[in-house]
Amino acid sequence: MSKSPLAAVLLGSSLLPGHALAQAILLDPIVLSVVDDPSGQIAVSEAQIRDARTGTLEDLFRAEPSVTVGGGIAIAERVFVNGIDEQQLAVSVDGAAQNNRMFHHTGTNIIDPNLLKAARVDPGVAPADAGFAALAGSLAYETKSAPDLLEPGRRFGGQATTGLAGNGDTATGALALYGQQGPVDVLVYGKRATGEAYTDGDGAVVPRTGADMTSFALKLGTQMGDWRAELGAIGFKDDALRPYRANLGGVFGGRPTPETRRYALDQNSQTLTLRRTGTDGLLNPEIRLSRSESALDTFDLATAETPAPDFNTGVADTVSLVVQNRFQLGGAEVTAGLDTARSRGRYEGQYDGSVLAFREDRTNTGLFVQARGRHGPIDYSAGLRYDQSRFTGVGGQAVDTDGASVNAAITWHVTDTLSLNAGASSVFGGTQLASVYELDDFSAPDAYDALGATRGQNRVLGAEWTQGGTTLGAEIFRTRLGDVRKGLTARDLESESFRLSARQDWRGGFAALRYSDTEVTLDGRGASSFDVRELGTIPGAMLTLEARHEVGAGLTLGGIVQHAIEEETRAADTDSDWPGYTVVDIFAEYEPAVLDNVTFRAEVTNLFDRNYVDRASYGGDYAEVVGQREPGRSISATAVLRF
Q1: Which of 20, 26, 405, 640 could serve as 462's disulfide partner, Cβ 3.0–4.6 Å?
Q2: For residue range 333-392, what is the model confidence (pLDDT) as tens digits?
Q3: In the UniProt record, does the keyword Signal occur (predicted)?
């Protein structure tokens, strides 16, 4: 835990005396907004998505301290939930299971926030229909389709977005065209962002950090009476010279490496869905076939000494099928079904002149049922899964495992103002695939004998009090991952935390304060960022303050303060504490009444030009590691035209 958690709480109280946050509590998903729909789910608000439309996932999650994103550039961004790497969560995009086991120097699942309709995080306790191996929860992204964007009564529309950020001279342009003719609707989207290397808070250029990103989407849909079919494809590409270790500024000592190499990242996902949109209480089936792939090529640069330099190609892909039905039973909504997935990790390359090729596979089939409902003052959710998993190693070794998963969560509305929450889950994860860049000659017959079937254990307990426009929340949680894979060994990873929240709403605005203090251990001992690489991070104590207010007709002002509290290292082999920092972002957004189809936004990020490395980035506990510094002050402008 942090050196001064009480100080953080007092700091938050001084910033927002007597107020509280309506952060969705506990067993409900972590809220990126404060919109609670009638079903009890929490969804990302349009305002949160707008704030991040020309940014990255770091911008999307920056107001939530228990969801941290490391990496100063998009290709290196990695999401952590309560200190646990998203590789240990069930991650999906439009229901397509993601194979996010790539390279520890890059991110895992990267998505353009401007495409998003919603983003949902189930921290720890996730439902059975979230997918296989939701060991520490789930993370689900949903992208927009034409019906989400078309104005009532119109058959065609479009949206053009352009932005310019001063730090790095980053220019962003996006165009979406969408329409509907009869029962058929179409969305076509493209985005391009380019720029130079940015400067840090001390004015020093951070080499090879310029934006070079392309994002695209194509969505086709048709309505056939009570049935809807939709085919969607999204993609993200980043191809540029980056630091040799893309998520680091450098390392003093160690293996000599060049300063730079080329990284070419290509992520894409395709989903075909057929579902019944009408409801009769018993038969509301959905069939979803999807494929996702992440491909990363790295190329060393040729020199006079090495005319045939090393290169690496890693591909992680998943093909999945889900067949499920939603129906009403005794006042509860029940989802029951079957899912099956085949995931692969492949590596090919040349290292020190040797040509190498390795591959691991995993096939999983699961049956699941999840019930959600309300009985008197109690909201409940409970589910079961049973999975059979076959893992095939580099040398063709077969490891068959099977296991059951269970989850349960309740919210007891004690009074009109007070509710108590509790939840628990035990989740089977089978034998895990290695990250593709970690694959090696694991061909010995007993190479995988030390690995066991991974299992996640999650517990959550909390309370929420609401009175008028004031909401207070508190929760404690514990996540334990047993036999989680690290190379060819099985380790035990644990995260313990508490979270406090306060929010005050008023006419035209709100202020929300969130505090999270998390301790991550490995095999029962304090861990370093190297120890938990690809397993988690060391978030420590984080505090955020988010505020937004509509000053007048069409004019909104707001901002976010992020405060990371200095964290003592508890690992035996580290030599540096995690430094604290405070970063302030502010914005103004204007929609003129005479131009109701235009939005202008001005923003200043890192207002006080702090020089810092994000707490979720690698290496802050090692003096010899130069972390990837975040951008210094940047003034940006964005314009959106809807037509």
Answers
A1: 26
A2: 999 999 999 999 999 999 888 899 999 999 999 999 999 999 999 999 999 999 999 999
A3: yes
Which pLDDT does position 352 carry in this prediction? Answer: 80
Q: Are 384 and 152 in contact (CB under 8 A)?
A: no
CA distance 514 to 562: 10
Q: What is the CATH number of the domain that holds 356?
A: 2.40.170.20
Tell which residue, 472, 500, 461, has the closest CA to residue 8: 500
Q: Which of 83, 77, 86, 137 is nearest to 113 (CA)?
A: 77
Q: For strand 90-93 and strand 137-143, is the pairing parallel, antiparallel, or unpaired?
A: parallel
21 occurs within a structural domain: no
Please check whether residue 8 lies inside any domain of the structure: no
Q: Which two tokens stand for residue 637?
A: 């402008």
pLDDT in tens, 363-372: 999 999 999 9
What element of type H or E holds 46? helix 46-51
Enclosing domain of residue 139? 42-642
Percent of the chain past pLDDT 70, that is, above it, reads: 93
Backbone angles phi, psi at 452, to 5 degrees: -115, 180
Q: How many domains does the chain have?
A: 1
Taking the CB of residue 121, how many other CB atoms lie within 10 A of it? 26
| pLDDT per position as a tens digit, 303-326 | 888 888 889 999 999 999 999 999
Mean pLDDT over all residues of the chain?
90
Pick the closest to residue 537 from 25, 98, 140, 71 (CA basis): 71
pTM of the model: 0.91
Contact assessment for residue 387 and residue 403, using Cβ atoms and an 8 Å cutoff:
yes
Hey, what amino acid is at 502?
A
Structure token pair of residue 160: 């053009």
- The dihedral over CA atoms of 9, 12, 17, 23, expressed in degrees to the nearest 10, equals -90
Is 7 part of any domain?
A: no
**CA gap 166, 54 in Å, rounded:** 13
Considering only the C-alpha atoms of the chain, give the largest distance between any 2 of them, rounded to a whole number of Å: 76
For residue 382 the two structure tokens come to 């409970």
- 113: tokens are 């926030």
Please tell me the distance from the alpha carbon of residue 415 to that of residue 413, in angstroms, as a whole number.
6
- Tell me which residue of 268, 260, 265, 287 sits closest to 276, measured CA to CA: 287
Buried b (16+ CB within 10 A) or exposed e, 83-108: bbbbbbbbbbbbbbbbbbbbbbbbbb
